[in-house]
Amino acid sequence: MGTFIVQVAGAGFGFLRVYQMALILRVYLAWFPNMNLYSQPFYTLLLVTNPYLRLWRGLIPAVGPFDLSPVVGFLAIGFAEDVFATLGHIA
Fold first, then answer.
1. How many angstroms separate the CA atoms of 69 and 54, rounded?
2. Torsion, CA 44, CA 60, CA 27, CA 17, rounded to 10
3. Structural domain boundaries, residue 15
4. How far apart are alpha carbons 70 and 62 in whole angstroms?
5. Given this model, what pLDDT does residue 91 score?
6. Number of domains composing the chain
7. Long-range CB pairs of 19-25, under 8 A, 24+ apart, other chains included
8. Pair 26, 49: CB distance under 8 Å
9. How far is residue 61 CA from its own chain's centroid?
């Protein structure tokens, strides 16, 4: 049973790392308003990351022109990564 938990935690940790990189790319792309995000491969990135960001946008209102929801989203993913790393004994 312990080995199963370590494997699941390792898989969860790996998934969160990849998803965090997708979110970073998504946030960087938002800085380029002339780029068409509705063409491939950017549209797939939007489909994958928008539900998670929309969750935080519903909880955290924008402060003026700044959308702080990705910051809270990154903090939540970082916390979950720490939990999975601890369970999976990942350094």
1. 8
2. -70
3. 2-88
4. 11
5. 55
6. 1
7. 19/48, 19/49, 19/52, 19/77, 20/74, 20/77, 20/78, 20/81, 22/48, 22/49, 23/49, 23/52, 23/53, 23/70, 23/73, 23/74, 23/77
8. yes
9. 18
Q: What is residue 81's predicted lDDT score, i.e. its pLDDT? A: 93
User: By the 8 A CB rule, do 45 and 35 touch?
Assistant: no
| Average pLDDT per block of 10 residues along the chain, 91 residues long | 84 94 92 86 92 91 86 94 87 55
Report in angstroms the alpha-carbon separations of 83 from 9, 46, 60, 76, 90.
Answer: 8, 27, 24, 11, 10
Helix (H, G, I), strand (E, B) or coil at 66: strand
User: What single-letter DSSP state applies at residue 67?
Assistant: -
- Identity of the residue numbered 63: V
